[in-house]
C-alpha cells in the first residue's frame, strides 16, 4: 500500500468520523482550540514520522496467527510483533499504519445494564465532642474497626438505581444532574473505581470483559479525573508530563529515534495541541503554591490523561472556576482527545453552555439516583418538552434538562400541571422506561452485544494492543506498561526533582543540620579521654543519633498528604505504590548521605572522638542507617493509619518506648525481662549500642584525680586507690573503654557488626511493610462526604420549625421568594467611585502593573457585574476596592460620597471571597449569627439580629442545613452549600455601604447559580449596592445584572456601562465599533470571545482597551462619576460628622464572643484534645512503668533525674499539634479581621484561653502517671511543687507553639524550626551535659536563658533534697587500705571533705574498703551547681518565660500579617 493511499484512507476515516459526530467538531469556529487543526497536526506529524520509520526500519508485520476463538491466556502467549511503532499508534489515532504492520486498534465501549450502586448514609450524624473521644476509644471493637476502616456510620441506601446504557468508542457522554444526584458515583463506576461503595449490582461490560475481569487485567484502561486537579505542585508542566511518558511509553518506538527524542516530541505535541507551550517550564502549583492558571492546570490534567492512553475516560465537573471561553476550550480539547484516540468519554459539567453541549454525542440526566433520560444530545430537549414541561428557548439545553429535575425551577406547558406531567424521580424514570428513546436504547444495546460477540477482531485487537504496549520485563498479567525496576527508576528521577526543586525545605534542612552540628560540636568540644568524659561521650553519641533519626518525623505528615497523588497514579497504572516507597528511600539516601556526612564531619572532629578513618566511617554509617530506619518506620505508620490523629497516637507510644529502652536512659541490664526484649526491635537502641561499641571499643580512658577514691593530699599510692568509673581495676589509673560499656551498658564491642546487621534487617522489614501496606491500603481513595449536625435544643427546634413552614409555603407557591426577605430595606445612599485606579506589584524584573487606569462607580439599587478573562485582574480589582490589599502600590482615587475611605469602610462593606474559608466546627446558623453580632451595630438588639439571620437562611434556601456543621472541603458541606454559607455570612453583616462578591456562582449547578443571582438582584432592589465577579453566565443569568465592568488581559477596562434589555446597550456598543453578535449567541460568552479572553481570535484589528479609552462612552462615564461625587458631597456635607469606628463592637464584647466560639471549636474537635491527652498519658505511663518503684540506690537517683527529664519531651509533642491548629485559626482570622469583625488581641487571647482546660487535664494526667509509679516523693509540699512545674511546662509549651506559629508564615516552616528549637532547649538544660562541663561561652548565657534549665533545676532539687542514698552492692567503689591501717583511718582525711560514706567494715569482706559516692541527694545536685534554696526563684523565672511568650504572641499577632494580598 503506497503512502498516499494510507494518508488518503486516514483522511477518509476522519471525514467519516466527522459526519457520524456532527456536533463533535467545530471547524467553523474561529476561536479557541481548533479541533480540526489539532487533528491535522497529528496527521502531518504522523506522515513525517511514518516516512522516517520506513526509511530506517523494515516493513515487517505479522498477522494474527491465532484463531479468534482462542482464550485470553492463549492470546497473551502469542509472539510479539517486530513491526515499527507509529506515533498515532501510541496515541491511538489513525489506524492505517497499525493495520499495515498487523497492530490492531485498542478501542473499547462500555455497556451497563440494571446498574445499582449502594453506599452508606441516610442517617443524621451528630458532631462528636471531647467526651465522645474517650467513650469511642474505650470501645475497643469500634476503635479497631475505625482503624481498619470497617465501621459504617449510617444505613445502606441506593445511590444509583437500575441504570442502563451504551457508550461506543469515539462517543462523548455528558452527565447532568443536580448536586447529590449521583453524577460522581456514575463516573467512578464507569471508570471501574468501586472502592468506598458497599455494593454494586448489575452488569458493566467493557467490550466483552465484565468489570471484575477488566479491573484485574486492564485497570489503567478506565480512568477517572476528579473535580480538583491533583499534581505535584513543585514539578513543572514538562516534568509532570515527562514522568507520565516515562511510565507509559510502550515497547515499540520508531527506529532511529531515542526514547528521549520520542518523549520530547510527544510533550511538544501535547503542549501545542492544548495551547500551553508557554507553561512548559512553569511549576504546576496548587491553591497554596503559585503556578500555572486554573485553566492551564486543567489542560495539564487532560494531557496527562491522554498519555495514559486509556480507552475509557471520565471527567468530573472539570470546568469549575473557568471563564466561559476557557471552559469551551476545555470541552473542545476533550473532543479532540475523543476523536483522535477513539476513546469513550464521560463528562459531568455544571453550568455548561450551548456550545459546550454541542461537543457531546449523548446525554445522561440523573435525578436523585434515577436515570430519567439517556440518548442523543439533539433529542433530549424535545423529549422533556414532550413530557409536558414548558419550552424555554432562551435557556441553554443543559440548564433546561437539569431544571426539569428541580421542583422549584421546572415549569409546565400550557394546560399541564404536576398531576399530568411526571415530576417525581420515580415517575420520570418510569416515563423514560416507557418512551421510544428507551426502546431505541435497548435496541442499540442489543445490537452492540451482538456486534462485540460476533466481531472478534475488535476484541482480539484490544488484547493484542495491550500486550504490545508492555515493555520487556513487564509481566503478562501485569496492568502496568513498564517493568517494576523501570517504575522505580522513573520514580527516582521524579523524586530527585521534587527534592531538588524544593529549595526552601532543602535550605532550611541543611541550615538546621549544620547549626545543630556546630552547637553540639562546641558544647562537647574536645572531650577528654578521661573518666570525666565517659558519660558526656555517651550523651554526645545519643544526641547525634537521635537528632538525625527524628529529622525523619516530617515523613509522617508528607506520607499522608501524598496519598491522593499515589491513589491517582495507581488508578492510572503509572506505577505500583510499592515502587514509589522504594524509589523514595533510595533518593532520600542520596540526599541524606550528603547532609549527614557534613553533620558527622563537624561533630566527630570537633568533639575529639576516636581518631581513625574506620571509626569515623562506621560512626557515619550507623547515623545514616538510624535515619533510614526511622524514616521507613514513620512512613510505615503513615501508610497504616487512616488519619494523622491515629498516627500521632501510635507514633508517640512507639517513639517513647524506643527512646526509653535505647540503653541511654536505662542501661539494658537494668531494664528487666519485660523491657529488655524491645532492644532487638528498637532501631535507636541498636544504633546507640553500635555507636558506643565503635567509640569505646577503641579508647582507653585515664582516671582523673576527681574520680580517684580516696584522693587528695597524702594519697599518692595508686595501689590503694580505685577509680569510680565502672571497668576500672584497683591499682590502675587506666580504664579500658570496652570494659566500661560492658559493665555499665552490657555492650560487647565484638557485637558491633551483629547489631548493625540487625539494624539493616529493620530497614528491610520496614521497607517491606511500607511497600505492602502501600499496595493494599487505599485511605482516601473513595467514599462519600458525611455531613454532621449539632443536636437540637428548644430554641433551635422552634427556629427550624418556622423555617420549615416558610419552605413549605415557598414550595406551594412554586419557588416564589417574594415573601422571603420582603422586609429587607437598605437605608444607605452612599456611592463608591474610583478614578484612574492603578495597581502595581513588585516582581524580580521590577514593577508589574495589574490594573491600568480603571474608572467606575457602584451606587445603591444596582447590581454590577465584573467580568473578563482568567487573569485579567477581576479579583485584584475587588481586593483593591474592598481595601484588602497589603502589598503593592495603589494609585488613583477611591471615594465614598466624594470623601476618602475612612477607618470604618471595611466594616461597612461585605466581601464574599472566592475561597470558602470558615471555622469548620460552626453550624451554618452559628456562623451567620457570629457575623451579625460582631458586624451589625452594637446598639441593634440581639433578637433583631437573630431574626435577620433567619431571614438570610431562608433567602439562601439553607433551611435543611441550618444546624449542619460547615466542616472542611473533604468532610462537611458540599461545594455549593459552602458557597451559600460564604454569601450568607456577608449578608448577615447587613453592610451599610457595599456588597462585594468574588465568583459567587463558581462550583454551583445552574439552578443554584440562578438562585444566588436572583437573591442578589432582590438585595439590589432593596437598595444594596453590589459589585460581583461572575464566570460562565448564561443569558437568563446575565440579564439580572444592571451594569457591566469588563476587563481584558493586562487589567485594562474595555467597557463600563449599562447592559440593557437582552444586553441591547452592551451589544450596541460593540456593534458601534465593528463587532456584531450573532442572534443565537449568548452575549456574555460572545463578548469574552470578541475581546480574546480565551484562545479566541479578537474581533477587529484594534485593541478594545484603546477603543474604550477613546470612546464617547468613556467620556460620559468620567462626567457621570464627577456628577455623582459632587451630588453626594452636597447631600452629605451638611450632615453631622459621624465618628469613625474601626470595629462595630467594643473589645470586651469581641473577646466574649470570639472566646465562646473558640472554646466551642475545641470542644467539637475531639481528636485534637484527646490525641494530646492520649500522648501525655502514654508517655507518662510508659516512663512510670519503666522506672517502676525506684529504690534509694545511686543508680535510682540518676533514674529519677531521667524521669524528670522526660517532662522536656512534652513541648515537642505539643508544638507539633498547636502550631497547625493556630495557623488554620489564623487563616480564618485574616478573613474575618479584614472585614473588621474583631481585633487581633481578641483572637490571640481566645486561642490561649481555649487551650487552658485541656492543658490542665493533660498536665494532671501526665503528672499522676509519671510521678507516682516510680515512687517519687509523697511529701505534699514537694508533690504540689512538681505538679505546678509540670502545669507551667504545659502552658509554656502551648504559648511557645502559638508564638512560633505567630512568627512564621506557615505550619510547614514552624515544623522545620521545631527540631532545632527543641534540640537547643534539651541540650543546654544540664542533663545530657552537666552545667560545670558546659563551655563557658554557652554556660554564661544560653544555659541561663534556657527555660528548661529552670524546669530541671527546680524539679531535681525538690525531688533529691534530703533524700538518703544507699548504694547497691555493685555500686560501691572498693579499695584496700595500706598495711596497718583500717578503712576509717586511711580514708578519714578524704572523707572530711568528700561526699558520700564508707560502708561499715563489719559489712565488707576481706578488709576491703567500700565507698559510696553519695550519702544524700543534695550531694549529687551540689556537683551540678544547683541549690534547693533557688527552687521558687526558678519557678517564678519559668513563669516569666510564659509571660514573655504571651507578650511576643500578642505583638506578633498585631504586627505580623502573612496574608499577602
Low-confidence stretches: 1-31, 49-98
Reported for the largest beta sheet, the result is: 6 strands, mixed
Shape: globular
Please compute the radius of gyration using only Cα atoms.
37 Å
Which sequence of strands runs across the widest sheet?
7-8-9-4-10-11
Distance between the termini: 63 Å
Oligomeric category: single chain
Strand content: 5-15%
Number of helices: 55
Total count of strands: 31
Structural class: alpha/beta
Mean pLDDT over the full residue set: 82
Q: Report the helical percentage.
A: 40-55%
Mind explaining what this structure looks like?
The longest helix has 30 residues. This protein has 55 helices and 31 strands. Helices cover 51% and strands 11% of the residues. The N terminus is likely disordered. The chain is α/β, with parallel strands linked by helices. Helix 38 links the parallel strand 25 and strand 26.
Amino acid at each position: 500500500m503506497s503512502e498516499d493511499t494510507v494518508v488518503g484512507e486516514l483522511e477518509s476515516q476522519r471525514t467519516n468520523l466527522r459526519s457520524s459526530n456532527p456536533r463533535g467538531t467545530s471547524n467553523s469556529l474561529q476561536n479557541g482550540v481548533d479541533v480540526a487543526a489539532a487533528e491535522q497536526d497529528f496527521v502531518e506529524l504522523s506522515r513525517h514520522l511514518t516516512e522516517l520509520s520506513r526509511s530506517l526500519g523494515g516493513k515487517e508485520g505479522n498477522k494474527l496467527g491465532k484463531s479468534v476463538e482462542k482464550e485470553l491466556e492463549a492470546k497473551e502467549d502469542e509472539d510479539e510483533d517486530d513491526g515499527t511503532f507509529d506515533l498515532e499508534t501510541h496515541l491511538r489515532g489513525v489506524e492505517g499504519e497499525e493495520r499495515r504492520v498487523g497492530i490492531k486498534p485498542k478501542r473499547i465501549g462500555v455497556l451497563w445494564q440494571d446498574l445499582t450502586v449502594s453506599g452508606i448514609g441516610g442517617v443524621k450524624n451528630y458532631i462528636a465532642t471531647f467526651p465522645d473521644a474517650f467513650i469511642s476509644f474505650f470501645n475497643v471493637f469500634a476503635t479497631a474497626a475505625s482503624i481498619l476502616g470497617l465501621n459504617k456510620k449510617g444505613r445502606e441506601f441506593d445511590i444509583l438505581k437500575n441504570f442502563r446504557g451504551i457508550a461506543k468508542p469515539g462517543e462523548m457522554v455528558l452527565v447532568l444532574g443536580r448536586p447529590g444526584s449521583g453524577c460522581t458515583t456514575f463516573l467512578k463506576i464507569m471508570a471501574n473505581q468501586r472502592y468506598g461503595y458497599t455494593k454494586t449490582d448489575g452488569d458493566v461490560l467493557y467490550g466483552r470483559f465484565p468489570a471484575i475481569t477488566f479491573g484485574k487485567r486492564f485497570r489503567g484502561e478506565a480512568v477517572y479525573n476528579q473535580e480538583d486537579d491533583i499534581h505535584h505542585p513543585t514539578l513543572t508542566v514538562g516534568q509532570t508530563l515527562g514522568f507520565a511518558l516515562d511510565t507509559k511509553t510502550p515497547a515499540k518506538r520508531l527506529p532511529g529515534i531515542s526514547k528521549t527524542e520520542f518523549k520530547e516530541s510527544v510533550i511538544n505535541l501535547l503542549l501545542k495541541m492544548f495551547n500551553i507551550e508557554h507553561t512548559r517550564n512553569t511549576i504546576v502549583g496548587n491553591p497554596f503554591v503559585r503556578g500555572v492558571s486554573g485553566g492551564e492546570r486543567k489542560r495539564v490534567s487532560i494531557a496527562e490523561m491522554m498519555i495514559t492512553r486509556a480507552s475509557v475516560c471520565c471527567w468530573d465537573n472539570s470546568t469549575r472556576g473557568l471563564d466561559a471561553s476557557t471552559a469551551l476550550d476545555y470541552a473542545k480539547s476533550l473532543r479532540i482527545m475523543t476523536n483522535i484516540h477513539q476513546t469513550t468519554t464521560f463528562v459531568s459539567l455544571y453550568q455548561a453552555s450551548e456550545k459546550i453541549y454541542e461537543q457531546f454525542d449523548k446525554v445522561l440526566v440523573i435525578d436523585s439516583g434515577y436515570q430519567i433520560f439517556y440518548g442523543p444530545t439533539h433529542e433530549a430537549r424535545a423529549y422533556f418538552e414532550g413530557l409536558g414541561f414548558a419550552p424555554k428557548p432562551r435557556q441553554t439545553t443543559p440548564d433546561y434538562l437539569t431544571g426539569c429535575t428541580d421542583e422549584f425551577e421546572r415549569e409546565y406547558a400550557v394546560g399541564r400541571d404536576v398531576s399530568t406531567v411526571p415530576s417525581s424521580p420515580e415517575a420520570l424514570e418510569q416515563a423514560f422506561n416507557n418512551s421510544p428513546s428507551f426502546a431505541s436504547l435497548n435496541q442499540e444495546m442489543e445490537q452492540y452485544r451482538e456486534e462485540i460477540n460476533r466481531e472478534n477482531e475488535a476484541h482480539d485487537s484490544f488484547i493484542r494492543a495491550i500486550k504490545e504496549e508492555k515493555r520487556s520485563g513487564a509481566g503478562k498479567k501485569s496492568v502496568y506498561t513498564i517493568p517494576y525496576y523501570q517504575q522505580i527508576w522513573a520514580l527516582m528521577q521524579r523524586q530527585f526533582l521534587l527534592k531538588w526543586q524544593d529549595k526552601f525545605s532543602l535550605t532550611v534542612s541543611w541550615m538546621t543540620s549544620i547549626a545543630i552540628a556546630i552547637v553540639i560540636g562546641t558544647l562537647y568540644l574536645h572531650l577528654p579521654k578521661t573518666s570525666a568524659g565517659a558519660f558526656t561521650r555517651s550523651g554526645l553519641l545519643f544526641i547525634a543519633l537521635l537528632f538525625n533519626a527524628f529529622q525523619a518525623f516530617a515523613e509522617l505528615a508528607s506520607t499522608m498528604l501524598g496519598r491522593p497523588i499515589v491513589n491517582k497514579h495507581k488508578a492510572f497504572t503509572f506505577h505500583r505504590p510499592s515502587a514509589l516507597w522504594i524509589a523514595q528511600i533510595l533518593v532520600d539516601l542520596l540526599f541524606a548521605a550528603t547532609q549527614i556526612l557534613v553533620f558527622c564531619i563537624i561533630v566527630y572532629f570537633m568533639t575529639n572522638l576516636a581518631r581513625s578513618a574506620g571509626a569515623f566511617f562506621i560512626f557515619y554509617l550507623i547515623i545514616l542507617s538510624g535515619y533510614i530506619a526511622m524514616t521507613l518506620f514513620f512512613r510505615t505508620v503513615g501508610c497504616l493509619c487512616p488519619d494523622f490523629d491515629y498516627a500521632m497516637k501510635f507514633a508517640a507510644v512507639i517513639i517513647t518506648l524506643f527512646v526509653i529502652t535505647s540503653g541511654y536512659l536505662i542501661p539494658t541490664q537494668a531494664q528487666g525481662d519485660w523491657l529488655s526484649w524491645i532492644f532487638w526491635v528498637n532501631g535507636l537502641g541498636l544504633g546507640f549500642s553500635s555507636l558506643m561499641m565503635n567509640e569505646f571499643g577503641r579508647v582507653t580512658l585515664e582516671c582523673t584525680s576527681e574520680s580517684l577514691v580516696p584522693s587528695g593530699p597524702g594519697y599518692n599510692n595508686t595501689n590503694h586507690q580505685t577509680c569510680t568509673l565502672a571497668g576500672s581495676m584497683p591499682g590502675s589509673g587506666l580504664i579500658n573503654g570496652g570494659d566500661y560499656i560492658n559493665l555499665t551498658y552490657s555492650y560487647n564491642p565484638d557485637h558491633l557488626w551483629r547489631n548493625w546487621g540487625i539494624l539493616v534487617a529493620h530497614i528491610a522489614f520496614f521497607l517491606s511493610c511500607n511497600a505492602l501496606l502501600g499496595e493494599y491500603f487505599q485511605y482516601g481513595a473513595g467514599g462519600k462526604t458525611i455531613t454532621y449536625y449539632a443536636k437540637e435544643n428548644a430554641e433551635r427546634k422552634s427556629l427550624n420549625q418556622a423555617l420549615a413552614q416558610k419552605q413549605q409555603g415557598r414550595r406551594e407557591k412554586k419557588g416564589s421568594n417574594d415573601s422571603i426577605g420582603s422586609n429587607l430595606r437598605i437605608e444607605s445612599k452612599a456611592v463608591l467611585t474610583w478614578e484612574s485606579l492603578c495597581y502595581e506589584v513588585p516582581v524580580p524584573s521590577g514593577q508589574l502593573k495589574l490594573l491600568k487606569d480603571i474608572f467606575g462607580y457602584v451606587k445603591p439599587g444596582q447590581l454590577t457585574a465584573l467580568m473578563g478573562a482568567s487573569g485579567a485582574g477581576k479579583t485584584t480589582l475587588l481586593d483593591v476596592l474592598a481595601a484588602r490589599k497589603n502589598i503593592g502600590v495603589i494609585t488613583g482615587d477611591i471615594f465614598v460620597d466624594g470623601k476618602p475611605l475612612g477607618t470604618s469602610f471595611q466594616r461597612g462593606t461585605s466581601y464574599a471571597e472566592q475561597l470558602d474559608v470558615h471555622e469548620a466546627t460552626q453550624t451554618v446558623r452559628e456562623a451567620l449569627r457570629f457575623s451579625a453580632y460582631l458586624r451589625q451595630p452594637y446598639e441593634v438588639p440581639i433578637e433583631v439580629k437573630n431574626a435577620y439571620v433567619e431571614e438570610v437562611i431562608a433567602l439562601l434556601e439553607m433551611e435543611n442545613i441550618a444546624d449542619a456543621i460547615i466542616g472542611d472541603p473533604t468532610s462537611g458541606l458540599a461545594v455549593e452549600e459552602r458557597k451559600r454559607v460564604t454569601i450568607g455570612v456577608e449578608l448577615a453583616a447587613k453592610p451599610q455601604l457595599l456588597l462585594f462578591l468574588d465568583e459567587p456562582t463558581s462550583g454551583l449547578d445552574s439552578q443554584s447559580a440562578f438562585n444566588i443571582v436572583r437573591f442578589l438582584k432582590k438585595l439590589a432592589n432593596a437598595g444594596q449596592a453590589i459589585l460581583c465577579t461572575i464566570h460562565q453566565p448564561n443569558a437568563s443569568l446575565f440579564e439580572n445584572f444592571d451594569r457591566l465592568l469588563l476587563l481584558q488581559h493586562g487589567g485594562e477596562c474595555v467597557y463600563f456601562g449599562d447592559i440593557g434589555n437582552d444586553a441591547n446597550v452592551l451589544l450596541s456598543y460593540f456593534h458601534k465599533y465593528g463587532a456584531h453578535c450573532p442572534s443565537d449567541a449568548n452575549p456574555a460568552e460572545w463578548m469574552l470571545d470578541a475581546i480574546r479572553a480565551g484562545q479566541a481570535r479578537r474581533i477587529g484589528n484594534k485593541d478594545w482597551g484603546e477603543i474604550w479609552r477613546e470612546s464617547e462612552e468613556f467620556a460620559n462615564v468620567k462626567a457621570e462619576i464627577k456628577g455623582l461625587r459632587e451630588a453626594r458631597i452636597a447631600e452629605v456635607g451638611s450632615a453631622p460628622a459621624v465618628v469613625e469606628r474601626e470595629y462595630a463592637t467594643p473589645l470586651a464584647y469581641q473577646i466574649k464572643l470570639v472566646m465562646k466560639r473558640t472554646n466551642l471549636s475545641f470542644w467539637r474537635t475531639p481528636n485534637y484534645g484527646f490525641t494530646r491527652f492520649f500522648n501525655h498519658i502514654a508517655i507518662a505511663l510508659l516512663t512510670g512503668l519503666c522506672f517502676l518503684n525506684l529504690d534509694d540506690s545511686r543508680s535510682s537517683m540518676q533514674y529519677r533525674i531521667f524521669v524528670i527529664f522526660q517532662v522536656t519531651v512534652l513541648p515537642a509533642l505539643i508544638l507539633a499539634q498547636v502550631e497547625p491548629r493556630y495557623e488554620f485559626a489564623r487563616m480564618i482570622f485574616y478573613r474575618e479581621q479584614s472585614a473588621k469583625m474583631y481585633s487581633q488581641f481578641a483572637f490571640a487571647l481566645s486561642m490561649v484561653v481555649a487551650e487552658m482546660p485541656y492543658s490542665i487535664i493533660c498536665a494532671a494526667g501526665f503528672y499522676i502517671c509519671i510521678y507516682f509509679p516510680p515512687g517519687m516523693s509523697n511529701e505534699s509540699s514537694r508533690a504540689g511543687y512538681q505538679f505546678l512545674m509540670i502545669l507551667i511546662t504545659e502552658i509554656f509549651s502551648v504559648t511557645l507553639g502559638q508564638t512560633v506559629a505567630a512568627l512564621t508564615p506557615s505550619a510547614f516552616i514552624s515544623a522545620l524550626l521545631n527540631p532545632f528549637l527543641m534540640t537547643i532547649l534539651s541540650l543546654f538544660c544540664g542533663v545530657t551535659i552537666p552545667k560545670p562541663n558546659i563551655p563557658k561561652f554557652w554556660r554564661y548565657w544560653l544555659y541561663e536563658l534556657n527555660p528548661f534549665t529552670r524546669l530541671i533545676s527546680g524539679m531535681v532539687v525538690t525531688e533529691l533534697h534530703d533524700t538518703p542514698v544507699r548504694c547497691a552492692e555493685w555500686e560501691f567503689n572498693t579499695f584496700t587500705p595500706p598495711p596497718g591501717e583500717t578503712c576509717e583511718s586511711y580514708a578519714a582525711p578524704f572523707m572530711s571533705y568528700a561526699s558520700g560514706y564508707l560502708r561499715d567494715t563489719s559489712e565488707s569482706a576481706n578488709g576491703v574498703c567500700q565507698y559510696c559516692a553519695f550519702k544524700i541527694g543534695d550531694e549529687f545536685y551540689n556537683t551540678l551547681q544547683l541549690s534547693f534554696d533557688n527552687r521558687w526563684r526558678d519557678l517564678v523565672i519559668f513563669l516569666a518565660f510564659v509571660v514573655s511568650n504571651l507578650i511576643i504572641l500578642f505583638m506578633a499577632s498585631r504586627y505580623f500579617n502573612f496574608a499577602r494580598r
